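INPUT
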Amino acid sequence: MNDRFLKACRREPVDCTPVWFMRQAGRYMQEYQAIRAKHSILEVCKTPELAAQVTLQPIDRFPLDAAIIFADILLPLEAMGLRLEFAEGEGPIIHNPLRDRASVDQLRPVDGDELAYVEEAIRQARRALTGKVPLIGFAGAPFTLASYAIEGGGSRNYIRTKQLMYREPEVWHRLMDKLARVVTGYLRRQIRAGAEAVQLFDSWVGCLSPGDYAEYVLPHVQLIFDGLKREQVPLIHFGTGTGSLLRLMRQAGGDVIGLDWRVHLDDAWQTVGHDVAVQGNLDPVALFASVHEIERRVEDILRRAAGRPGHIFNLGHGILPNTPIDGVAVTAEMVHKLSQR
Amino acid sequence: MNDRFLKACRREPVDCTPVWFMRQAGRYMQEYQAIRAKHSILEVCKTPELAAQVTLQPIDRFPLDAAIIFADILLPLEAMGLRLEFAEGEGPIIHNPLRDRASVDQLRPVDGDELAYVEEAIRQARRALTGKVPLIGFAGAPFTLASYAIEGGGSRNYIRTKQLMYREPEVWHRLMDKLARVVTGYLRRQIRAGAEAVQLFDSWVGCLSPGDYAEYVLPHVQLIFDGLKREQVPLIHFGTGTGSLLRLMRQAGGDVIGLDWRVHLDDAWQTVGHDVAVQGNLDPVALFASVHEIERRVEDILRRAAGRPGHIFNLGHGILPNTPIDGVAVTAEMVHKLSQR
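OUTPUT
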C-alpha cells in the first residue's frame, strides 16, 4: 500500500511528494468518455459499479498517490429535495432554486440512506484499491452548495446568493446550518464506508470579502470540521480565489489547506501556518503547456515547498475537459522524480 | 470645481472622502436605457454627443466626485483590426480572434485619428463638466485586452490566452508590447483632450499566478505607466481578484491602486504601501442590500481607511446591470456624510 498521501496529510516525512489531481477522473480521458457515452453523469454517480470503475481509471493509467471517489458535489442537494439536472455543455441546473424562507424550511434533512449509493461506490472502490492507493471522499461546502441552490446553477456575480445573505441573514444562517449538518453526516458516512481522507470543496467561496466569510460562512464550516474530528482521518479544506481568506479558512478547520495557483505556495503556507499541511497549487492550464514549461512550474512549486513534510502536490482546481492526457501523465511522473528525498 | 477626487489621488487632505463608481453610467439608470433603446453601445461610443451625454447622466443625479468618460475597453482592439460586436445579453464577441503569430503581426498600430471620437467625447464632456467634477479617461490593460482578443470574448478559464503565453512566449510578448504601445498613446491623447486622470483596467488579470504576472504582464504595464508619467495627471491601476498581485501591480505603476472587495482595505493599503493612494472597495452586490446593511459596510471601509489622505471610495468592480438606483444614491451620500473631517 502506497501511503505517501496519508503520511503527507499528517505532515510525516515521505520518500517523495505525493500527487493527485482534482477531477482526475473526467472528460479528458477516453476511458471516461466511453462510459459517459452510455450513461449520464447522474447514472454514473448512482450506479456504484460505474462510479467505482471511473474512480479507478486514472489510478490504472498514471502514477497517482490517491484516488478520489467519483461523485458530484450537488448530490446532497438533490437528496434534500432540489431537482437537479446536468444539461449537456451547460453545467448543472436546479429547477426549483431556493428563494425564500419557505423553500429553505422545506429542505429535507439527509439522515438515512438517501446517498447510500455513494457509500456503496466507496466500498467497491476501496476493495479494488486494496494494496494500491488510499481513497478520498468529498463533499461541497455549505457556501458553494448554497450558491448553486439559490442561483439555480453556476453564477458569475452571486447576486441572489449575496442578496439572501445581506437581506435575510436569519434565513441564510438557517440554510447554511442545514447544509452543514447534511454535509457532516454525509462525510461521516463516507468515512465509515471506507474513505481514508475527505475533502471539503468550497470552490466558489473566493467571491466573498473576508468580512463576509467570517460572518456568514466560517461558523458553519467550523461545525463540519469539529463534527468530523473524532473520525480521525485527514480533513482537506479547499477553495479557489482564497488568497485573502486562507487564514480564516485555516481557522474554520482542516488538517490540509488546499491552495490555488493565485498564491505563491511558500507565502500561503506561511499564512496558514506550518503546523498544517498544504495541497496544491499548479494552474490547471499549465497541463496544456510543453513538457519543458510544465517542468519549470513543477520545480518552482517544489522549491517553494522546500521539502517540508506536509505538501501534497495537486492542481489549483480541477483538470479541465480538453486537457492533453500527456500533460497529466508527465506532471505526475515529474513530481515524483523531482522530489526524491 | 469639486477637486476632492484629484486631491485624494495626490494624497492631499480633503473635507470628506471622494466617491465615484465604476460603470456609473449604465443599464441600472433609466436615462441610460432611454438612449440605448435607440442606439447600440458602439453607436453611443462613436457619437461624441451621446457619449458625453451618457457620461453626465450619473453626475446630474448623484453627489459623485468624478465623472468617467463613457467608452468601452475594447475600442482600441477594433481600431487595431479586430471585428468587434456587442451581442445583446451575451457580451462582446470578436469575430477574428488572435490565434497565431501571423494574426498578431497583422494588428495595426493606432497612432492617428482612429479613436478621435473618444477624444472628442472627452472634449465635450469636459466642457459640460466645467465647474462641476473632474473627468476620468480610461483604457483596458494589455493582459485584459489580450484575453478578449485571443479568446474571442469573455472567458472562464483563459485557456487559449495562457496557452499562447506558455507555448509561444515570444508571440505573447510581441502582442503585449503592441497593446501596451497602443494603450499608452490612447491614454496620452485622452489626457491631452482633457481627461484629468486616467484609469487602467486590468479587470481579468486576477486569473494569473504571481509568477506569471511578473513574467508575462508586469513589464508591459510598466511601459504604459512610465510612458504617462510626464503627463502629470493621476494614474489609477485597477484589477479584480488581485489579492496576491497587489505588490507587483504597485511595482508596475500607478498613483492610485484599485482594490476589489476580496481584500480588507487596511491590509491591502499596507501591502501596496501608504505612499500610494487606494481606491475601493465595496462589493457591487452590497448596493442590493438594505440601507442599514450598506451603512454598516461603508462604515467598515471608512474605518479601515482611517482618515488617511489618499482614499477614493469606489466599488470593487463595476455597478451591476440590475442594481437598485436607491442603493447607488444612498451609498454616495453616505460616504460623504460618514467621512466628514
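end of record. The first strand of chain B starts at residue 67 and ends at 68.
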